[in-house]
Amino acid sequence: MLGLKEIYQAKKNLEDIVLETPLLKNESLSREKRGRLYFKCENLQKTGSFKIRGAYNCAVQLTQEDLKKGLVTGSSGNHGIAVSYAASLLQTKAVIVVPQDASAAKVKACQKYGAEVVFHGLTTTERLAKAEEFALQGMTLIHPYDHPHVVAGQGTIGLEIFRSLPQVDYVFVPVGGGGLLSGVATALKELGSSAKIVGVEPVLSSRLRLALAKGEPWELERWQPSIADGIRSKKIGQIAYHQAKKYVDQVISVEEEEIREATRALIEATKLWAEPSAAITLAAYWKYDQEIADKNCVCLLSGGNIEIGTMAEIIGG
Ligand SMILES: Cc1ncc(COP(=O)(O)O)c(C=O)c1O
Q1: Which residue of 33, 87, 161, 218 lies most exposed, with the fewest beta carbons within 10 A?
Q2: Which residue's alpha carbon is nearest to atom 10 within ligand 1?
Q3: Which residues line ligand 1 (CB under 6 A)?
Q4: pLDDT digits (tens, 9 = 90+) for 203-214
Q5: Taking a C-beta distance cutoff of 8 angstroms, is the pair 152, 2 a contact?
Q6: Cα distance between residue 50 and residue 157, in whole Å
Q7: What is the distance between the alpha carbons of residues 173 and 165, in angstroms, rounded to a whole number?
Q8: Domains along the chain?
Q9: What is the pTM of this model?
Protein backbone atom coordinates (compact mmCIF):
# COMPACT_ATOMS: atom_id res chain seq x y z
CA MET A 1 0.00 0.00 0.00
CA LEU A 2 1.48 3.31 -1.00
CA GLY A 3 -0.11 6.72 -0.81
CA LEU A 4 0.22 10.12 0.80
CA LYS A 5 -0.35 8.70 4.30
CA GLU A 6 2.75 6.48 3.98
CA ILE A 7 4.76 9.33 2.49
CA TYR A 8 3.83 11.66 5.37
CA GLN A 9 4.78 8.90 7.81
CA ALA A 10 8.14 8.66 6.02
CA LYS A 11 8.59 12.43 6.34
CA LYS A 12 8.15 12.08 10.10
CA ASN A 13 10.57 9.17 10.28
CA LEU A 14 13.16 11.17 8.35
CA GLU A 15 13.01 14.30 10.50
CA ASP A 16 16.52 15.24 11.64
CA ILE A 17 17.93 12.40 9.49
CA VAL A 18 17.80 13.91 5.99
CA LEU A 19 18.28 17.44 4.70
CA GLU A 20 15.54 19.36 2.97
CA THR A 21 17.65 19.93 -0.13
CA PRO A 22 17.50 23.23 -2.03
CA LEU A 23 15.40 23.81 -5.13
CA LEU A 24 17.68 26.07 -7.15
CA LYS A 25 16.43 28.22 -9.98
CA ASN A 26 18.79 28.31 -12.93
CA GLU A 27 18.92 30.68 -15.85
CA SER A 28 22.06 29.69 -17.67
CA LEU A 29 21.02 26.19 -18.69
CA SER A 30 17.40 26.75 -19.61
CA ARG A 31 18.34 27.71 -23.18
CA GLU A 32 16.02 30.09 -24.97
CA LYS A 33 12.24 29.71 -24.65
CA ARG A 34 12.54 26.58 -22.60
CA GLY A 35 10.68 27.63 -19.51
CA ARG A 36 11.87 28.21 -15.98
CA LEU A 37 14.36 25.59 -14.88
CA TYR A 38 14.91 24.42 -11.30
CA PHE A 39 17.20 21.77 -9.86
CA LYS A 40 16.13 19.73 -6.85
CA CYS A 41 19.56 19.13 -5.37
CA GLU A 42 19.60 15.65 -3.88
CA ASN A 43 23.25 15.54 -4.95
CA LEU A 44 23.71 17.67 -1.81
CA GLN A 45 21.78 15.18 0.35
CA LYS A 46 23.51 13.30 3.19
CA THR A 47 25.37 10.27 1.73
CA GLY A 48 25.47 12.11 -1.61
CA SER A 49 22.12 10.93 -2.95
CA PHE A 50 18.38 10.70 -2.26
CA LYS A 51 18.73 7.03 -1.36
CA ILE A 52 19.04 7.67 2.37
CA ARG A 53 15.37 8.67 2.43
CA GLY A 54 14.08 5.26 1.38
CA ALA A 55 16.77 3.18 3.08
CA TYR A 56 16.38 4.82 6.49
CA ASN A 57 12.58 4.89 6.28
CA CYS A 58 12.63 1.15 5.64
CA ALA A 59 15.27 0.25 8.25
CA VAL A 60 13.72 2.31 11.03
CA GLN A 61 10.42 0.42 10.67
CA LEU A 62 12.03 -3.00 11.19
CA THR A 63 11.49 -4.86 14.44
CA GLN A 64 14.41 -4.77 16.87
CA GLU A 65 14.89 -8.47 16.14
CA ASP A 66 15.20 -7.96 12.35
CA LEU A 67 17.40 -4.92 12.84
CA LYS A 68 19.78 -6.89 15.08
CA LYS A 69 20.30 -9.47 12.31
CA GLY A 70 22.04 -6.79 10.27
CA LEU A 71 21.08 -5.22 6.93
CA VAL A 72 22.01 -6.48 3.47
CA THR A 73 21.41 -5.11 0.01
CA GLY A 74 22.51 -5.28 -3.61
CA SER A 75 23.31 -1.87 -5.02
CA SER A 76 25.38 -0.17 -7.67
CA GLY A 77 26.45 2.15 -4.88
CA ASN A 78 24.14 4.88 -3.73
CA HIS A 79 21.59 2.65 -2.05
CA GLY A 80 24.49 0.72 -0.55
CA ILE A 81 25.97 3.90 0.91
CA ALA A 82 22.53 4.81 2.27
CA VAL A 83 21.99 1.38 3.86
CA SER A 84 25.51 1.55 5.35
CA TYR A 85 24.74 4.96 6.86
CA ALA A 86 21.29 3.85 8.10
CA ALA A 87 22.89 0.77 9.71
CA SER A 88 25.47 2.94 11.44
CA LEU A 89 22.76 5.29 12.77
CA LEU A 90 20.67 2.35 13.98
CA GLN A 91 23.74 0.59 15.39
CA THR A 92 23.64 -2.59 13.38
CA LYS A 93 25.93 -4.18 10.78
CA ALA A 94 25.55 -4.02 6.98
CA VAL A 95 26.68 -6.10 4.00
CA ILE A 96 26.55 -4.39 0.61
CA VAL A 97 26.76 -6.40 -2.63
CA VAL A 98 28.18 -4.13 -5.35
CA PRO A 99 28.95 -4.77 -9.03
CA GLN A 100 32.40 -5.97 -9.98
CA ASP A 101 33.01 -2.63 -11.70
CA ALA A 102 31.62 -0.56 -8.81
CA SER A 103 32.80 3.00 -8.56
CA ALA A 104 35.68 3.17 -6.05
CA ALA A 105 34.15 6.33 -4.56
CA LYS A 106 30.93 4.47 -3.77
CA VAL A 107 32.73 1.46 -2.30
CA LYS A 108 34.87 3.70 -0.09
CA ALA A 109 31.76 5.52 1.14
CA CYS A 110 30.09 2.22 2.21
CA GLN A 111 33.25 1.19 4.05
CA LYS A 112 33.49 4.58 5.74
CA TYR A 113 30.21 3.77 7.53
CA GLY A 114 31.56 0.39 8.61
CA ALA A 115 29.80 -1.84 6.05
CA GLU A 116 31.29 -4.99 4.57
CA VAL A 117 31.43 -4.78 0.75
CA VAL A 118 31.03 -7.87 -1.44
CA PHE A 119 31.73 -7.66 -5.21
CA HIS A 120 29.40 -9.67 -7.44
CA GLY A 121 28.07 -9.56 -11.03
CA LEU A 122 27.27 -6.47 -13.06
CA THR A 123 23.48 -6.09 -12.99
CA THR A 124 20.97 -5.36 -10.25
CA THR A 125 19.41 -8.81 -10.77
CA GLU A 126 22.75 -10.53 -10.06
CA ARG A 127 23.47 -8.37 -7.02
CA LEU A 128 20.04 -8.87 -5.53
CA ALA A 129 20.29 -12.64 -5.97
CA LYS A 130 23.57 -12.57 -4.01
CA ALA A 131 22.05 -10.30 -1.35
CA GLU A 132 19.16 -12.75 -1.00
CA GLU A 133 21.68 -15.49 -0.14
CA PHE A 134 22.78 -13.38 2.84
CA ALA A 135 19.12 -12.82 3.73
CA LEU A 136 18.55 -16.58 3.71
CA GLN A 137 21.35 -16.85 6.27
CA GLY A 138 19.47 -14.45 8.53
CA MET A 139 20.24 -10.86 7.51
CA THR A 140 17.45 -8.43 6.64
CA LEU A 141 17.23 -7.38 3.00
CA ILE A 142 16.59 -3.70 2.30
CA HIS A 143 15.43 -3.69 -1.31
CA PRO A 144 16.83 -0.79 -3.38
CA TYR A 145 13.46 0.17 -4.87
CA ASP A 146 10.64 -2.39 -4.72
CA HIS A 147 9.43 -1.95 -1.15
CA PRO A 148 6.63 0.40 -0.05
CA HIS A 149 8.71 1.96 2.76
CA VAL A 150 11.57 2.64 0.36
CA VAL A 151 9.26 4.20 -2.21
CA ALA A 152 7.48 6.25 0.48
CA GLY A 153 10.86 7.59 1.64
CA GLN A 154 11.76 8.67 -1.90
CA GLY A 155 8.28 10.23 -2.16
CA THR A 156 9.20 12.81 0.49
CA ILE A 157 11.10 14.62 -2.29
CA GLY A 158 7.75 15.17 -4.00
CA LEU A 159 6.38 16.79 -0.82
CA GLU A 160 9.34 19.17 -0.73
CA ILE A 161 9.04 20.11 -4.41
CA PHE A 162 5.33 20.84 -4.02
CA ARG A 163 5.86 22.92 -0.89
CA SER A 164 8.59 25.05 -2.53
CA LEU A 165 6.96 25.32 -5.95
CA PRO A 166 3.21 24.57 -5.87
CA GLN A 167 2.89 25.74 -9.47
CA VAL A 168 5.31 23.13 -10.77
CA ASP A 169 4.47 22.05 -14.36
CA TYR A 170 7.06 19.40 -15.24
CA VAL A 171 9.19 17.13 -13.06
CA PHE A 172 11.98 15.10 -14.69
CA VAL A 173 12.98 12.03 -12.66
CA PRO A 174 15.65 9.41 -13.44
CA VAL A 175 14.47 5.79 -13.52
CA GLY A 176 16.48 2.82 -12.29
CA GLY A 177 14.22 0.30 -10.59
CA GLY A 178 11.62 3.05 -10.45
CA GLY A 179 11.38 3.64 -6.69
CA LEU A 180 12.30 7.30 -6.97
CA LEU A 181 9.96 7.99 -9.86
CA SER A 182 7.01 6.18 -8.30
CA GLY A 183 7.47 7.88 -4.92
CA VAL A 184 7.77 11.37 -6.37
CA ALA A 185 4.88 10.82 -8.81
CA THR A 186 2.61 9.46 -6.08
CA ALA A 187 3.34 12.38 -3.75
CA LEU A 188 2.79 15.06 -6.37
CA LYS A 189 -0.32 13.59 -7.97
CA GLU A 190 -1.98 12.75 -4.65
CA LEU A 191 -1.27 16.27 -3.43
CA GLY A 192 -3.33 17.44 -6.41
CA SER A 193 -0.45 18.79 -8.51
CA SER A 194 -1.15 19.03 -12.22
CA ALA A 195 2.57 18.67 -12.98
CA LYS A 196 3.54 16.31 -15.77
CA ILE A 197 5.82 13.62 -14.39
CA VAL A 198 8.50 12.52 -16.83
CA GLY A 199 10.51 9.34 -16.24
CA VAL A 200 14.00 9.49 -17.76
CA GLU A 201 16.17 6.49 -18.66
CA PRO A 202 19.19 5.76 -20.85
CA VAL A 203 18.51 4.51 -24.40
CA LEU A 204 20.84 1.62 -23.46
CA SER A 205 18.37 0.39 -20.85
CA SER A 206 14.84 1.69 -21.38
CA ARG A 207 13.17 -0.69 -18.97
CA LEU A 208 10.21 1.52 -17.99
CA ARG A 209 9.29 2.11 -21.62
CA LEU A 210 9.50 -1.66 -22.18
CA ALA A 211 7.35 -2.45 -19.13
CA LEU A 212 4.65 0.00 -20.20
CA ALA A 213 4.66 -1.49 -23.71
CA LYS A 214 4.48 -5.07 -22.41
CA GLY A 215 1.88 -4.35 -19.73
CA GLU A 216 4.09 -5.58 -16.85
CA PRO A 217 7.68 -5.24 -15.57
CA TRP A 218 9.78 -6.95 -18.23
CA GLU A 219 13.47 -7.79 -18.21
CA LEU A 220 15.53 -6.17 -20.96
CA GLU A 221 17.05 -8.74 -23.29
CA ARG A 222 19.69 -6.51 -24.74
CA TRP A 223 21.41 -4.49 -22.07
CA GLN A 224 24.57 -2.44 -22.03
CA PRO A 225 25.97 -0.58 -19.03
CA SER A 226 25.30 3.13 -19.28
CA ILE A 227 27.65 5.86 -18.04
CA ALA A 228 24.70 6.50 -15.70
CA ASP A 229 25.79 3.71 -13.34
CA GLY A 230 23.03 4.33 -10.78
CA ILE A 231 20.27 3.44 -13.22
CA ARG A 232 21.33 0.13 -14.63
CA SER A 233 18.62 -2.26 -13.54
CA LYS A 234 17.27 -4.58 -16.23
CA LYS A 235 13.70 -4.41 -14.98
CA ILE A 236 11.58 -1.99 -12.98
CA GLY A 237 9.87 -3.05 -9.77
CA GLN A 238 6.22 -4.04 -9.36
CA ILE A 239 5.36 -0.99 -7.25
CA ALA A 240 7.08 1.29 -9.74
CA TYR A 241 5.16 -0.27 -12.59
CA HIS A 242 1.77 0.17 -10.94
CA GLN A 243 2.41 3.73 -9.78
CA ALA A 244 3.96 4.70 -13.13
CA LYS A 245 0.93 3.40 -15.02
CA LYS A 246 -1.27 5.48 -12.78
CA TYR A 247 0.75 8.66 -12.37
CA VAL A 248 3.61 9.01 -14.88
CA ASP A 249 2.80 11.12 -17.93
CA GLN A 250 5.80 10.61 -20.21
CA VAL A 251 8.94 8.51 -20.54
CA ILE A 252 12.04 9.87 -22.29
CA SER A 253 15.13 7.92 -23.32
CA VAL A 254 18.49 9.68 -23.49
CA GLU A 255 21.66 8.83 -25.44
CA GLU A 256 25.02 8.40 -23.70
CA GLU A 257 26.56 11.49 -25.32
CA GLU A 258 23.59 13.59 -24.19
CA ILE A 259 24.10 12.39 -20.60
CA ARG A 260 27.77 13.33 -20.79
CA GLU A 261 26.99 16.75 -22.20
CA ALA A 262 24.49 17.45 -19.42
CA THR A 263 26.97 16.30 -16.73
CA ARG A 264 29.61 18.64 -18.15
CA ALA A 265 27.18 21.54 -18.48
CA LEU A 266 26.04 21.26 -14.87
CA ILE A 267 29.57 21.71 -13.59
CA GLU A 268 30.53 24.37 -16.05
CA ALA A 269 27.44 26.53 -15.76
CA THR A 270 26.18 25.91 -12.25
CA LYS A 271 29.13 24.38 -10.36
CA LEU A 272 26.78 21.54 -9.38
CA TRP A 273 28.59 18.21 -9.08
CA ALA A 274 26.01 15.71 -10.28
CA GLU A 275 26.61 12.12 -11.34
CA PRO A 276 25.43 11.07 -14.83
CA SER A 277 22.40 9.23 -13.37
CA ALA A 278 21.24 12.61 -12.09
CA ALA A 279 22.36 14.84 -14.96
CA ILE A 280 20.28 12.67 -17.30
CA THR A 281 17.23 14.71 -16.24
CA LEU A 282 18.77 17.87 -17.70
CA ALA A 283 19.43 16.02 -20.96
CA ALA A 284 15.75 15.01 -21.05
CA TYR A 285 14.61 18.56 -20.32
CA TRP A 286 16.67 19.80 -23.28
CA LYS A 287 14.59 17.60 -25.56
CA TYR A 288 11.52 19.71 -24.86
CA ASP A 289 10.84 22.96 -26.63
CA GLN A 290 7.73 25.07 -27.09
CA GLU A 291 5.57 22.85 -24.89
CA ILE A 292 7.57 23.99 -21.84
CA ALA A 293 7.80 27.69 -22.71
CA ASP A 294 6.79 29.62 -19.57
CA LYS A 295 6.47 26.43 -17.57
CA ASN A 296 8.10 25.62 -14.23
CA CYS A 297 10.35 22.63 -14.83
CA VAL A 298 12.17 20.70 -12.12
CA CYS A 299 15.08 18.40 -12.92
CA LEU A 300 15.74 16.05 -10.03
CA LEU A 301 19.48 15.86 -9.46
CA SER A 302 19.35 12.56 -7.64
CA GLY A 303 22.98 12.14 -6.63
CA GLY A 304 26.56 13.35 -6.82
CA ASN A 305 28.63 10.26 -6.12
CA ILE A 306 31.10 9.98 -8.94
CA GLU A 307 34.82 9.43 -8.90
CA ILE A 308 36.95 12.44 -9.67
CA GLY A 309 38.76 10.50 -12.42
CA THR A 310 35.50 9.56 -14.14
CA MET A 311 34.26 13.12 -13.91
CA ALA A 312 37.58 14.38 -15.33
CA GLU A 313 37.17 12.01 -18.26
CA ILE A 314 33.61 13.28 -18.88
CA ILE A 315 34.63 16.92 -18.57
CA GLY A 316 37.52 16.32 -20.94
CA GLY A 317 34.92 15.25 -23.53
C1 LIG B 1 21.86 8.79 -8.56
C2 LIG B 1 20.69 7.90 -8.81
N3 LIG B 1 19.64 8.40 -9.47
C4 LIG B 1 18.55 7.67 -9.72
C5 LIG B 1 18.46 6.35 -9.31
C6 LIG B 1 17.23 5.56 -9.64
O7 LIG B 1 16.50 5.21 -8.50
P8 LIG B 1 15.45 4.03 -8.56
O9 LIG B 1 16.21 2.76 -8.59
O10 LIG B 1 14.63 4.21 -7.35
O11 LIG B 1 14.69 4.23 -9.82
C12 LIG B 1 19.53 5.77 -8.62
C13 LIG B 1 19.48 4.37 -8.19
O14 LIG B 1 20.39 3.84 -7.61
C15 LIG B 1 20.68 6.57 -8.35
O16 LIG B 1 21.73 6.08 -7.68
Answers
A1: 33
A2: 179
A3: 49, 76, 78-79, 144-145, 174-181, 230-231, 275, 277-278, 302-303
A4: 999 999 999 999
A5: yes
A6: 8
A7: 16
A8: 4-48+147-315 (3.40.50.1100), 51-141 (3.40.50.1100)
A9: 0.96
